[in-house]
Specification:
278 residues, alpha+beta, Jelly Rolls, Arc Repressor Mutant, subunit A, 3-stranded antiparallel beta sheet, 11 helices, 47% helix
C-alpha cells in the first residue's frame, strides 16, 4: 500500500521529482487517507479496477481510500508533483461548511483541469502548504487544516467543468489489472499473448477469452491501441523520425507502423504530425 500517514498525524505533503519512466511497482491501496496532488510536469495514466484515466502537467488528481490503483508514465517528460495525504477527520471543517456532497463529487471526478492562470495559483497554494508543513510551530496543524479547506474550495470553484474521458470503464478482475499494467509498461517490447497470460497466472486460452470478455476487444487489438496511443504522443510532442517512433512503440519497422497507423487513424504519421502541430 502507499506509505501511510505517520502515527499521530492527520496530514502530510511531499514535493518530489521522478524520472519519466517512474511507475508504481504494484497495485496499491490507501487505507487511512485521501490524497490530492498537483502535477507540476509529466504525463501519467492511472489504472484502477473500474476505469483508466490520465492526468498531465497543471492537473490536480485525487484518490479516495480503499481503491487499488497503479500509475505509469506516458511520455519522456520528467514527473514532478506535490502530493497531499489527509485523514477523513482532517477534512471535517470543509465538509461541515461546504457540504459532504461537494466533497464526494470533487473526489469522484478523479482529475480536475484548469485555465493557465488558475494552474499557477493552485501550484503556489501547494507550494505554500508544503512550506508551512516544514515549520515546527504549535499551530501548524490548525493552519494546514485551513489551507487545505481553501485549496479544496479553489479546486472546486476554478476547475474546467468537464468529465475526464475513461479509456476503460468496465470492472476488471485482478488478473486483468495485472495484464493491463504489464501491457502499459512493456508495450514497446515484443509482447505475446502467452507471456502476458503468464503474468496474470492464467492459461493462454482462458486468458484470451477473459481478456475479450472484460475489455471488449482482443489482446492483440488492445496492445495495438496502446502502441498507437503512445505513437501519437511522440508524433505530436517530439521531432523523432517515424522509424524511431515505430521502434520505440513496439512496431517492427517504420513501413509497418505507417501502414498500421493509417489503418487505425485514417492518416499517415506525417499527416497526423502536421495536423497536431500547434
Amino acid at each position: 500500500m502507499p506509505y501511510p500517514i505517520p502515527e499521530g498525524q492527520h496530514f502530510t505533503i511531499e514535493h518530489a521529482r521522478f524520472s519519466s519512466d517512474y511507475h508504481m511497482p504494484s497495485m496499491q491501496m490507501a487505507s487511512d487517507h485521501y490524497s490530492i496532488g498537483y502535477t507540476v510536469s509529466g504525463d501519467r495514466r492511472c489504472i484502477t479496477p473500474t476505469k483508466t484515466y490520465e492526468y498531465h502537467g497543471g492537473d490536480v488528481a485525487m484518490q479516495i481510500p480503499y481503491v487499488y490503483h497503479r500509475t505509469v508514465g506516458q511520455t519522456d517528460t520528467p514527473y514532478e508533483r506535490f502530493l497531499i495525504k489527509f485523514t477523513p477527520e482532517f477534512a471535517a471543517p470543509f465538509i461541515s461548511h461546504v457540504g459532504q456532497h461537494i466533497f464526494d463529487e470533487l473526489f469522484r471526478l478523479k482529475v480536475c483541469r484548469f485555465p493557465t492562470a488558475s494552474q499557477e495559483k493552485i501550484k503556489r497554494m501547494f507550494a505554500e502548504i508544503n512550506e508551512e508543513y516544514q515549520k515546527d510551530t504549535p499551530y501548524k496543524e490548525f493552519i494546514l487544516q485551513g489551507m487545505l479547506c481553501r485549496l479544496l474550495c479553489t479546486v472546486w470553484e476554478e476547475r474546467i467543468a468537464e468529465e475526464t474521458p475513461d479509456r476503460n470503464s468496465s470492472p476488471l478482475t485482478k488478473p486483468m489489472i495485472d495484464a493491463i499494467y504489464y501491457i502499459e509498461t512493456h508495450y514497446n517490447q515484443n509482447l505475446t499473448l502467452t507471456e502476458t497470460a503468464r503474468t496474470a497466472c492464467l492459461s493462454t486460452a482462458y486468458f484470451s477469452r477473459l481478456f475479450h470478455a472484460q475489455l471488449g476487444i482482443s489482446f492483440s487489438e488492445y496492445v495495438s491501441n496502446v502502441r498507437i496511443h503512445y505513437a501519437k504522443i511522440l508524433l505530436s510532442q517530439s521531432r523523432k523520425s517515424v522509424t524511431e517512433i515505430a521502434l520505440e512503440t513496439g512496431f517492427c519497422s517504420g513501413d509497418y507502423f505507417s501502414t498500421h497507423f493509417k489503418a487505425k487513424t485514417g492518416m499517415t504519421p506525417i499527416a497526423f504530425r502536421k495536423h497536431s502541430a500547434p
